[in-house]
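Escalation from tier 1.

The customer reports that the assembly of two entities below gives different structure tokens on two consecutive runs. Tier 1 could not reproduce it. I'm attaching the input and our single run for tier 2 to review.
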Amino acid sequence: MPLNHDKNKYTGAFTSVKPERIIELAIQLFLGFVILFLVRYQTTGIVVNLLFLLAIAAQFILLKKPQKSIGFWFSLSLFFSYKLLTTYFQAANHLFIALYLSLAFLVFFITQQNAGILRKNIQLILGLALLFSGIQKIVSSDYYSGAYFYYMLQRGDFLWPLKHLSASFQEITSYNMMVLESSRSIYPGGATFEALKTPFSGAKTMSYYLSVVSIALELGAGIAILIKPKSLITHLLVLATIWGVFFTRQEAGFLTLLTVMGLVLTEKKYFVWSYLATGIVFLSLILLGVGFL
Amino acid sequence: MLQLRTRFLWAGFMKLLLFKYGIALLLLAITCLQLYFVQTKNLTTWKGGGFGMYSSIHYGHSEIWIRADGLDIWSPIDSLGKLPIGLDNLKKDVFRRPFKANLEKLAVEICSFKKYNSIALEIWQPDLETTSGGFHKHRIHSIKSHAIEP
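Tier 1 run:
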């Protein structure tokens, strides 16, 4: 009876996926990010990148499945640690997350593929990252008041899909960018520059509400991950946060890493598909140059 | 024998603790360090691994203006033309961490590169609270005048 129960658990539609299969998929998605990262940043620290690539190539030749070896994850953790130590004040936040993820996978293989420990590590990384992201926005008066969101909207940096949907949004944001660009050649002391135009009526009010909603989503998703990492609502919140951030800001690189972590924490088939599709879309957008890395 | 077993169990417990919570502790330590640098060295919230990106205006929107050798004219730092790699990196670092010692370092380096005797340096940022009257910028840091020792 228990055997049949286990079998059904893994074979029916919209049911659970085997944890080892999910982790395998998450590793593949993460490696997709690592490859794009290496290609994108090949000009900085080319010697170290080359040495690392050689080490990886050697492992692929010598080992059957290098992504399952401790040595592979150790060298990847070492690589990201080196990058962070040498560029601490320049490094973007996704580089920090990439290091934490490499360390989590290293621990996973050191502990003879203990999925419980991996999930605990990923749960804490994802939960704390979302929580701190929300807290930093709450303490920033510019963000909380909606002023920062509105300024970025006036520049056309936020809600970027509108550029492709509305000609007037595109026109006004281009005009604002021109005003801002030309203002950079005039000494700002005592100067008043031409006022920036509002992209659409009610943009200021909408900026305020979107700022508050995004803070609530990030905090909500962070707390939910820390308290109930497997819950349906938690993963709906995480996916909403990921897609919400993408439609406001194109940060596909950072979001791919959030997707990898969400994937490890879920076990339901429909969430596995959702996270996988999201990750693949983001990696493709980075390749096409639409998403940032 | 009992002591040996206790020591063994203790080592196993510590190992498990390290594997389970070590990475989260590293994350917390780095975030605390970032908050410390934000408070004491004006580090932009975008950098340092504290997940403060998009919580404040990006440092790339700031402008550095210079006035050399007591002239009345202020010029943007880009008017200096192409800078040597070291100086260019220092300039970028000042955008990310505009605290006094960093600004002074930049002033000294510009003086020695351009052979100026003195220099004044200011960093400006756009005002986010826009009014219907127009768009303004505010000064976030400045060095009044930096004289180079002969």
